[in-house]
Specification:
The chain is α/β, with parallel strands linked by helices and 478 residues long. It has 15 helices and 21 strands. The chain is globular and about 70 Å long. The structure holds nicotinamide-adenine-dinucleotide (NAD). Nicotinamide-adenine-dinucleotide binds next to helix 7 and helix 8.
């Protein structure tokens, strides 16, 4: 019998309604399991359980919270191969990438176990004689967490761990297509010693469960990662009721390759950044902006390198790229490949679906020579499809890199200190990479973007304290 993934509310496992298949995008005939949908009533119950648990949990000691988070991190790390296998099967990234993501989730819990013991505060001299001023941080309350499917362990980890570390209670809503990873994480948290109601997980449709969470008056803050349309809709709802909100959304990240670059390095950065994890990373390099003098040589080397990339079952050794995560995403990718042709782009590599022994959503890594105004060069695709753009010189490359409504990550490959330094300062992005792929970040430093990619304080590292706490200024007359 296949495994059934359930919601977790107020310390109990709840079956939910009906039975939806949890699809395996590499083998559609063998689903990962099944799950029941939670509805708006269950979502409200989860928020209420979190609200009821908060007063006591908000007074728990930092040591108590640190011990729990540390135990969660240790268990995830000890089981990273098994969790990685589940992730690779359910989401489709390769087994090494999936094990790496599981390990990262474990490290994040351990990082925030330490942060629970280092909650910052300040004491300042008052402008008035005989008065002390203390600035302290307190938990926000009930935090809603809405996550996407592309990092189904790491993204929930980097929201749940700081939320709990700083004394908040949590209602977590995973993306519809990754209930197995969400369940695995919730199952570990359910045995970690958290009082009932402190952590809740509700599996269900965004428009039903997510919306019910956001509308609930007891929700105090919402951390969202996902697409721009969903994020902007949530922002409007949050503004209408004064809800604290943080949004991490899409990207159209540029990788600039200058004429002085090591071209082997540039090709590796481009292939990794644009195509690994099937291009389904918000930090993926979907615009490769190459200086004219090396454009033809770079394009030729990319074609050669892409011909060596192996697409297939992510559990098999030697596979570079797994399937697209869902049929809906595959249809989006194929529609953009069509748009690439329609807009007059030149297909340099790929563009077709791939058949393997099992039925799955496999797609060739695809590269178009494009113009800046083409849709494939402007809109987020979120698949293994990249646009190659020609730049006259560094200044033109920088202007093209910044010519987007997004601002998540920007990369440059160059041996020029002058251009690297200038790019770090002038790229309009929350993260900048020099001689590195745009995707692939450290877990202990801030993560986030500018412009249309993000809203609100940064995630991860010590900067997470900004969103998950509220500041109090206390004056005392001596
Ligand atoms: P999505 O916006 O479709 O869904 C994200 C989450 O929102 C899901 O859990 C979904 O169920 C929920 N949701 C959908 N409609 C909702 C509603 N009306 N109310 C409340 N919740 C709702 O995004 P996705 O397809 O899961 O993820 C892909 C997107 O995520 C891409 O745009 C990608 O760039 C972005 N992403 C961004 C980052 C980042 O940190 N910037 C990281 C990973 C992914």
């Amino acid at each position: 019998m296949s495994q059934r993934f359930q919601s977790y509310i107020n310390g109990e496992w709840i079956a939910g309604n009906g039975s939806e298949p949890d699809e395996n995008p590499s083998d559609l005939d063998r689903p990962v399991g099944e799950y029941g949908q939670a509805d708006a009533v269950l979502a409200a119950r989860a928020v209420e359980a979190a609200a009821a648990a908060w007063p006591k949990w908000s007074l728990s000691t930092p040591q108590q919270r640190a011990d729990i988070l540390d135990a969660v991190g240790s268990e995830i790390l000890a089981r990273k191969e098994e969790l990685g296998r589940l992730l690779a099967t359910e989401e489709g990234k390769t087994l090494p990438e999936s094990i790496g993501e599981a390990a990262r989730a474990g490290q994040i819990f351990k990082f925030f176990a330490g942060e629970a013991l280092r909650i910052p505060g300040e004491k300042l001299a008052s402008t008035r004689p005989g008065v002390d001023v203390e600035i302290t941080r307190e938990p926000v309350g009930v935090v809603g967490i809405i996550a996407p499917w592309n990092f189904p362990l790491a993204i929930p980890a980097w929201k749940i761990a700081p939320a709990l570390a700083y004394g908040n209670t949590v209602v977590f809503k995973p993306a519809e297509i990754v209930p197995g990873c969400a369940w695995a994480l919730a199952e570990i948290l359910s045995r970690a010693g958290l009082p009932a109601g402190v952590f809740n997980m509700v599996i269900g449709a965004g428009r039903v469960v997510g919306a019910a969470m956001v509308e609930h008056p007891s929700l105090d803050a919402l951390s969202f990662t996902g697409s721009v349309p969903t994020g902007n809709g949530l922002l409007r709802q949050a503004a209408a009721r004064g809800l604290k909100i943080q949004l991490e959304m899409g990207g159209k990240n540029p990788l600039v390759v200058l004429a002085d670059a090591d071209l082997d390095k540039a090709v590796e950065c481009a292939v990794n950044g644009a195509y690994f994890s099937t291009g389904q990373r918000c930090t993926a390099s979907s615009r490769l902006i190459v200086e004219n003098a090396v454009y033809d040589e770079f394009a030729a080397r990319m074609r050669k390198r892409l011909a060596q990339i192996k697409v297939g079952n992510p559990l098999e050794a030697g596979i570079d790229i797994g399937p697209v995560a869902s049929l809906a995403q595959l249809e989006t990718d194929l529609s953009y490949i069509k748009a690439g042709h329609e807009d007059g782009g030149e297909l340099l590599f790929g563009g077709e679906r791939i058949e393997i022994a099992t039925r799955g959503h496999f797609l060739e890594p695809t590269l178009f020579a494009a113009k800046p105004e083409h849709r494939i060069a402007r809109e987020e695709i979120f698949g293994p499809v990249a646009a190659l753009l020609r730049a006259d010189d560094y200044e033109h490359a920088l202007a093209l890199a910044n010519d987007t409504r997004f601002g998540l990550c920007a990369g440059i490959v160059t041996n020029s200190l002058k251009h690297a330094t200038h790019f770090k300062r002038h790229a309009q992005a929350g993260m900048v990479m020099v001689n590195l792929p745009t995707a692939g970040v450290d877990p202990h430093v801030p993560f986030g973007g500018r412009k249309g990619s993000s809203y609100g304080p940064r995630e991860q590292g010590r900067y997470a304290v900004e969103f998950y706490t509220t500041v109090k200024t206390a004056y005392t007359a001596a």
